[in-house]
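User: As part of a screening pipeline, I want to sanity-check one entry by hand. Below is the sequence and the SMILES for magnesium ion. Please return the complex as structure tokens so I can compare it with the automated output.
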Amino acid sequence: MATTTVGLQRTWRRPGKPVLVAAVLLAWVLIWVPARGVHTLGLSPADLTPLHHWLNDVNDTVGANRDSSPFFLYFFNEIRAAVDSLVTFLQDLIAQPSYGRPVPVLGWLGVVAVVAYVSWVFAGWKPALLAAAGFVFFGLQGLWEESMDTLALTLGAVVISLLIGIPLGIWAGLSDRFHKLVTPVLDFMQTMPTFVYLAPLTLLFLIGPASATIATLIYAMPPAIRLTAHGIRSVPRSAVEASESLGATGRQKLTGVLLPLSKGTIVLGVNQTIMAALSMVTIAALIDAPGLGKTVIKALQTLDVGTAFNAGLAIVVMAVVLDRVTTAAGNRVRQTGRAARFRRPLLAVFGVVAAVCAYLSHTYYWAAEFPDDVTIGGTLAKSADSVALWAQQDLSTATEAIKNAITYALLNPLEALLVESPWWLVGAVAVLLAALLGTVRSVITTAACVALLIGTGLWQDSMTTLAMTIVATAMVMLLGVAVGVWMGRNRFADRIIRPVLDAGQTMPAFVYLVPFLALFSATRFTAIVAAVVFAAPVAIKIVADGVRAIPAATAESATAAGSSAWQMITKVQLPMARPSLTLAANQGLIYVLSMVVVGGLVGAGALGYDVVAGFSQGQLYGKGLAAGAAIVLLGIMLDRIARASSPSKGSN
Amino acid sequence: MSTETVISVRDLWKVFGHKADRVPRSDELKALTRRELIERTGCTAAVREVSFDVAPGEVFVVMGLSGSGKSTLVRCLTRLVEPTAGQVVFEGEDILGAGKRRLRDLRRHKFSMVFQNFGLLPYRQVIDNVAYGLEIRGASKAERLRRAREVIDLVGLEGYEHSYPDQLSGGMQQRVGLARALAVDPDVLYFDEPFSALDPLIRRDMQNEVIRLHREVGKTMVFITHDLNEALRLGDRILIMRDGRQVQCGTGDELVGAPADDYVRDFVRDVPRASVLTLRWVMRQPRPDDVLDGPELGPEVVIRDAVRTVLAADRPVKVVRDGTLLGVVTAEEILTVVTDVEAVA
Amino acid sequence: MKLLRLTATAAVTALALTACGGEKIGETPVAGSSSGAAACGTFNLAVNPWVGYEANAAVIAYVAEKNLGCTVTKKDLKEEIAWQGFGTGEVDAIVENWGHDDLKKKYIDEQKTAVAAGETGNKGVIGWYVPPWMAAQYPDITDWNNLNKYAAQFKTSESGDKGQLLDGDPSFVTNDEALVKNLKLNYKVVYAGSEAALITAFRQAEAKKTPLIGYFYEPQWFLAELKLVKVSLPKYETGCDADAAKVACDYPEYVLDKIVSKKFADANGPAYKLVKAFTWTNDDQNVVAKYIAEDKLSADDAAKKWVEANPDKVKAWLAQ
Ligand SMILES: Nc1ncnc2c1ncn2[C@@H]1O[C@H](COP(=O)(O)OP(=O)(O)OP(=O)(O)O)[C@@H](O)[C@H]1O
Ligand SMILES: [Mg+2]
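Assistant: Here is the complex for your manual check:
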């Protein structure tokens, strides 16, 4: 930057990438003006393409053959029976009256004691206290049984996810070939909207815990596989080599080196799997999954914000408890000295206490059923209601103005450009950008995505959704950088903000849809806001962690050179946190895309609406499936272009 | 193979990349430089046509600049990296033909390795790290611990048995690595730049440790380093590599005294020659006017040790082996070497 | 060590002592299992996600349990999935069905897993509605002929330079795009995407006195809170909606009915007879829906309240 002349000369000889990208975008606009409105491949919501009809037929055939096909009789039915019995067992244990008793095997006191004990053993004092407090809070909310149902279902899904996911992750960690094979499948599992496969799942696995669990684990398993593979892959080469050089067999290497050394990352995978499973609670309720999700959905039918909030809060608390406990368990340090000496006797003592509590809760009503005269759920619901009401009445004028400003200034022009361009123009721009920024591979992927998008018959809807996705991701990144840098630089801010972010990530969207609708009407902007609420937390956390991970020495030397805070941020912290920024953009994008369907519920139309309508109306099923595929394709295309332009790949 | 060699390497090749095995087979590709080969085929030739023998009890050092293929070479010897072509014979057995099980047996009993980054298992205490090799080969717990204690004492780590690796300094961690390799009582020890990550004082300490161990247990050692001084201190013989090829192989004084090319010459330029070269390298044929009744010294005497004698004598010092006069040395020859050193220092 | 063991024993004894008070589980017999249970057995009742349906289901479930001794399992399901359940044997009855000719064709005519079980007595109306304040201020707005006059008022950020017609729940079939086109209205259909979105929009429109026109339907509990005014479209005549693309008339009046699984009907048990006999009026349903939606009673309590107030209606169902 100091030697301007050199820089200038270089630009003069060969235009840099930013210039070329700008040129492509400018050319787009210039061609758009005359070509506007032709070849836009529009399709009205009620119309279907042959592909959609064909998908409908496939779905019908599957349904019609359900009872006769041996595949069903011996394969799906067996799986269903196994999953059903696992989840039912968990429900009998903690949630539902069972074994001819009017209450579950373990009552509230037993569950609280066992959870606290287990948390203490694996994670330590603080998480154990948090867990106990959190679980008692469910009871106080008046949602004990619902919470336990949700916990049982979540645990069932998580256990199966891990039983399958960790071995697959190990395999993907050991074999490059399997890793390459499984990665796109995982992308698919994470971006394909659940609504698309909810109905077929109930065909395959019937209505009941099995379908709900399987729907949950399709979404929740990928993190377990990904992070296990990542952990195995990042074990230092030297430790592996050392064990090989001593003549270890494959199994010895795995159990002695790879698994112990990737334990931390695998636990992170477990943690992410739990979070993902919890985020499916409300959607699973649409196919009769018991628990908190049902409460939320029921409350939404009568627009009862308070009740929905109370149940949503329970989900958030459960997420925070499980998150803190698993994270602490993963980061646990060795016990030494005094603590280690007292550990054994303490283990026994607390074990006995937990067992006694469990026994009491099995035997006496007072310990089995949470006393319902100390409920605070009603109060919580009422306060949430009045806050929502106040916001709707007093803020909506201001929020309406914000909505209009962003819609007219940003969203509408972008959407006009994308939607009114001929398909070949958008396709050409995408391929050109991929070519400029990436490799041959990214060009091929992009071209294939464009072709397949056209194939879905939903090109125009895809472009509408794309416009919203871009705006939402941009807002996510804006927030991610602003708040993330602040949190990264300031521990106190981090402490305060982090729980809010956790809540944003785990509070079911169905809880805040109604207030958002009141504030911003049923519009695309509401969909964008909902997506930002869900996606910004993850981006913020990644940026904050990235900024914090910058070596102290670098920051010190910059301070020593007399940098101002602003220079520090722009010259040192942001450039050094660049890999984190890339990751934040990628994750932000995926999270935004996973909210497209929720957007469809609040006025976004386009692909989100197609998916929801496909879920609700039989004759639109095929179209919904195609729309789901289009969302996946958009995700892959944006991800590849973004990844190609990221500096970590060494563009020079 | 004669019993005089433990390891015998012939025409060893290691090429990384797609369809790597065509490279050693094609004379045209073989002749290319490393860079040309990458441009042509996308393959990296890490080790090219290397041959040498290691004698029992010998400390054989491989040295070269970063990227010259040392690590790859030593890993080929244990097949941690699969060689592309050539032959590696260990105690008369062709290792490259060994099956999986046999190879594992060899690794468990015949040779072990010490790594630059230690490769310790952070979740195990020192004693369990040391016993790891024995555990792998299925030794009983009691025997493992007994043997581990023994080698821990041997490398001077008494009292640290129950520490974790991250509680130790770098030097101590490498002692653990060393102990782990010694615990299985191998015939040959391989060292891949074991001390590069350590600071100079500790490095010197550890070198002494290796010298002491070599004296005490008398193992054959193959030692990789990029530090010439280390090579000269430890090595009976030294193999110099450049871009995957071997440039020269010989004793320290051979390298310093008769470098094979400019690359080696450059390498050894900063070496204090007086402490490496022996009289053999500076003696000259006696001239008719030389008085031949001066003191006698052997040809293997290092110059530094001969300075006093030569300078004190008022006539040429005779270099004699088994009663045969090989040549003479005078103050003139000695001073050229010594002042050369002075000039550099 | 000793100290620890001592405290532990103390803690355990203390716990055990305090525990000894209180009622033991199993001392009271488990309720249920009256004489009728054997005859009725388990009754799987689908509950579709809207309050009107829930009102029907609540009353039927209450009567089935209390009067017939059935074990009722309510399953919260979307319509399509509930219909699927007939085939897999997981659903016995759907007790408020809105048309769904396609599903009837598939499951009743083709797969033969479902059969119709008569009308519920409720009439479903679908159409375009405006908030009451608009109807009061612009009385002629309720005639579709005048809609273009008001188009500009309905403009939003979503509808460009046209008026916005807010469409609704994706579960309902809509002809609105065709209607707008064929009636030459200067409107754009915007998809709100959910019932919650529609209701919130109408609520806000009335509270803020902002213009809004949108798709809605009755019976619906929200109409008790806010009496939306229906806009009259060209009158429906049989067959005028045969070609979806050429529709230019109002929606037909839906006769809401009940569908049961074939197996359930063939068994002809008491629960089936109850479902078949069940019928009531829109007003009845609105009352129960209000209990649930506004008074926040549980479904069971709401049903109880209504059943106690209407014993003769219940008696009539059971008499058949
Ligand atoms: N697994 C691999 N795949 C491809 N190329 C490799 C691989 N391992 C080593 N190389 C290449 O082989 C060459 C020799 O590497 P090697 O690690 O043997 O060098 P080295 O002499 O040990 O260097 P250093 O002193 O840095 O350890 C290098 O150019 C390296 O890039
Ligand atoms: Mg190396």
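Points to compare against the pipeline: Chain A touches chain C through 83 residues (CB under 8 Å). Residues 144-174 of chain A form the longest helix (31 residues).
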